[in-house]
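To illustrate the input format used throughout this study, we show a single complete record. The first block contains the structure-token representation of the backbone; no residue identities are included at this stage. The design step must infer an amino acid for every position from geometry alone.
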């Protein structure tokens, strides 16, 4: 029964990106129409995997990301409509500690989306602080697949050791793991260079998804050491990282100019060439068009090597997610 079930991830391998639909900073309801246009543009250009999470939105915006994504999906009519894949991540909140809580959470997400979730993912591992909780939540994740409530299951922020353990546990139930999400970019190479997660995912038949592929915007080239900087914590992070990323940004800029591409497109294409599926966000049609420009071409081996070397020489890198396990 499980073998015949396939999740529609389009051509999710090298050469595609997905839309990461997180809580929008500074969001207001007037943006809805603009975001619908972004969604329409993505799908019509073959970008059909959309990733969100049930924790994206608090207070009056609780569940807003899923509600919007569900609405966009329902209102879209056009090319690739049948290939739309809605993925969400269920948070490992401390009050979720039974397998039934995961089933309830997924049903709530499906209600907000207005349709069943295609790909459900555990948002983070509790292995670093509450491994007993993780076991129950993972059992609930597998239950969702066995009960036919989702087409596929995935994980996020799991390292190779825990990934192998979960894979074995799920395999005993005949439940395949479709995807693994990790923070990965030219300023966050740790998951592949040190944890070797790509090798493990290839061995286990799991697609690797790269979140924050533009390092929160640092790799777009829109910001300099002199500012101006984004507000809040993001701005503080930029002040710390930009001085040490000068050589990397210079390398990105040179390759982008040679290729007649933007720095964002080169950074995303680098992720693609590494065999991952980057999920950049897009709040405007212009941003979405820029992201789409990362498709249909590939950096050559010399360009990749130059970027690898520049990334390795960066004085500072993105702080790893505190939930990332080994």
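Output of the design step:
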């Amino acid at each position: 029964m499980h073998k015949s079930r396939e999740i529609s991830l389009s051509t999710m391998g090298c050469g595609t990106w997905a839309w990461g639909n997180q809580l929008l900073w500074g969001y207001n309801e007037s943006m809805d129409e603009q975001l619908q246009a972004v969604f329409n543009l993505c799908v019509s250009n073959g970008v059909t995997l959309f990733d969100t999470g049930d924790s994206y939105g608090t207070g009056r915006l609780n569940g807003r990301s899923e509600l919007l994504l569900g609405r966009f999906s329902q209102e879209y009519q056009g090319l690739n409509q049948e290939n739309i894949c809605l993925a969400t991540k269920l948070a490992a909140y401390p009050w979720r500690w039974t397998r039934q809580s995961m089933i309830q959470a997924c049903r709530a997400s499906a209600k907000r989306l207005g349709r069943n979730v295609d790909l459900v993912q555990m948002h983070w591992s509790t292995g670093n602080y509450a491994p007993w909780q993780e076991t129950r939540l993972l059992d609930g994740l597998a239950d969702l697949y066995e009960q036919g409530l989702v087409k596929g299951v995935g994980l996020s922020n799991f390292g190779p050791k825990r990934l192998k353990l979960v894979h074995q546990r799920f395999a005993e139930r005949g439940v395949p793991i479709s995807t693994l999400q990790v923070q990965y970019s030219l300023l966050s190479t740790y998951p592949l260079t040190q944890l070797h997660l790509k090798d493990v995912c290839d061995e286990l038949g799991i697609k690797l998804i790269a979140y924050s592929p533009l390092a929160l915007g640092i790799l777009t080239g829109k910001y300099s050491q002199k500012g101006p900087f984004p507000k809040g914590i993001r701005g503080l992070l930029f002040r710390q990282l930009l001085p040490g990323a000068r050589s990397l940004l210079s390398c990105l800029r040179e390759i982008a100019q040679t290729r007649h591409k933007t720095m964002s497109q080169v950074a995303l294409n680098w992720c693609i060439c590494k065999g991952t599926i980057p999920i950049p966000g897009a709040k405007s049609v212009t941003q979405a068009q820029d992201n789409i420009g990362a498709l249909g071409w590939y950096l050559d081996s010399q360009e990749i090597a130059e970027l690898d070397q520049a990334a390795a020489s960066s004085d500072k890198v993105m702080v790893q997610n505190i939930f990332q396990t080994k």
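Structural context for interpreting the output: The radius of gyration is 19 Å. Residues 1-16, 23-27 have pLDDT under 50 and may be disordered.
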